[in-house]
Design a protein that fits this description.
alpha+beta, 2 domains, 10 strands
Length: about 425
């Protein structure tokens, strides 16, 4: 019998017989499973929120690459050349101005108006995917049409077909443009409260007229893979240099540059959550370490016998490490499978949870109602739409993070067993057998 088969045979006997009716292995497996499940679900929900924010910023208000400082109007040939650059998904010119709008409401509302081409949604599929039209359509063919955010429309008390006035203008806008009326052609929802409350779209030519000399056309470029931004920027600069004689005045910036602080804060928040929830593995690992040390002491006679028969200290040590291997593997699998099921069906999970809590509230109200007990109205919601600006709970599973969580749980048990079994090498067969 080879050494590997021998170690597996003895380890299998130990695992199958257990530890003299000790419940520690069961608790260790449950601890690893709980940690993997909790971390998988929490990180998936956090990814859903964070990536939702990031994608809203990059697809709606920002872009992957910004080209600034171009002469107005932008050459159509340059935009076509940029669209043909490998890795570029879309190129959308836009202009921005800050204004005050007044609708039926008695108080005006400040807003950022972005001027885009009439076919903006066709030119930018990323923007189209993030804007949900609540009313009307994204129609900017009429130079005096405007598309409002849902919360802005609600604040101004206007709907599709109503007219709003542009009250006050800044920058280079001519004074006679003040008070011009615009017809609301559509109302959008982005899922991001700031944009729904403070954004509106008009035709880019109208925006350029309003801004006058202060008009600054920017090219917003979306990439097929935003992580390839640096490589694509070099190609974009080459195209601009070949077609623009004043290319030195043109600035090309990546999404990493103008969103650095916000994205850095999200990354830090996620890392800290990962560490805090990962403390479960440290606690469980210490429990396994102490349990394994106790097992080594309890089996000193068996260790001495194995050593006397010719087994090396490393081989005997691997027998006990196998126990940690089983605990880590079983616990990680038992936590990962339900964790992924919950993460991929987060809406159904929270609906079931809310239904169970509301059922308990109704039962308690029925039982204790005769003594004046009241535990609420039975309308408990984890993420209430009255408090959170959410239609549904986002969840995003990232494969490499799932693999990392799995190995965290697995190796926490394996390493604890390895270090705990270090006492095996200190066991002297002669000393153990002398007293037997």
């Amino acid at each position: 019998m080879t050494a590997t088969r021998w170690i597996g045979f003895v380890a299998g006997r130990y695992v199958s017989k257990g530890r003299r009716n000790s419940p520690t292995p069961v608790f260790s497996v449950l601890g690893i499973a709980t940690g993997v499940l909790a971390l998988t679900v929490i990180i998936a929900v956090m990814n859903g929120f964070q990536l939702g924010f990031i994608e809203s910023i990059l697809e709606i208000s920002s872009c992957h690459v910004r080209v600034e400082g171009l002469k107005s109007p932008v050459d159509a040939g340059l935009m076509n050349e940029l669209r043909s650059v490998p890795g570029v998904l879309s190129v959308l010119p836009f202009d921005e101005i800050n204004v005050l709008l007044r609708g039926r409401s008695t108080s005006p509302r400040g807003a950022l108006i972005r001027g885009v081409p009439a076919g903006a949604l066709a030119l930018d599929p990323g923007l189209a995917s993030r804007l949900e039209m609540e009313e009307g359509s994204f129609d900017l063919g009429d130079p005096f049409s405007i598309v409002l955010g849902g919360e802005l429309s609600r604040h101004l008390l206007v709907n599709t077909g109503d007219e709003i006035n542009l009250l006050s203008i800044t920058g280079g806008i001519r004074e006679e443009e003040s008070g011009r009326s615009y017809r609301v052609s559509g109302v959008f929802r982005s899922g991001f409260y700031e944009y729904d409350l403070g954004w509106a779209y008009i035709n880019i030519d109208t925006a350029a007229e309003l801004a006058g000399e202060a008009s600054q056309i920017v090219l917003g470029i979306k990439l097929k893979n935003r992580w390839q931004d640096q490589k694509t920027i070099e190609k974009i600069k080459e195209v601009i240099a070949s077609m623009d004689s004043d290319a030195s005045a043109v600035g090309v910036r990546s999404w990493r540059d103008y969103n650095r602080s916000f994205f850095g804060a999200l990354r830090t928040e996620k890392l800290m959550m990962f560490i805090l929830v990962g403390l479960i593995f440290i606690v469980v690992g210490l429990n396994i370490f102490q349990a394994q040390r106790r097992v080594v002491l309890e089996r000193r006679e068996e260790i001495g016998l194995l050593r006397a028969l010719g087994a090396s200290s490393t081989a005997v040590r691997l027998v006990f490490v196998w126990d940690g291997f089983i605990i880590g593997l079983v616990g990680a699998v038992l936590g990962l499978v339900p964790g992924l099921l919950i993460a991929y069906n987060i809406q159904e999970f929270f609906s079931l949870l809310e239904g169970a809590v509301n059922f308990c509230i109704d039962v308690f109200n029925s039982v204790f109602g005769f003594i004046g007990g009241n535990f609420g109205q039975g309308d408990f919601a984890v993420f209430s739409t009255q408090i959170f600006y959410l239609k549904e709970i986002p969840s995003r599973v990232i494969p490499h993070e799932v693999v990392l969580i799995f190995f965290f749980g697995f190796f926490s048990a394996l390493l604890a067993a390895w270090f705990a079994s270090g006492k095996v090498s200190a066991t002297k067969p002669a000393e153990v057998l002398r007293y037997e």
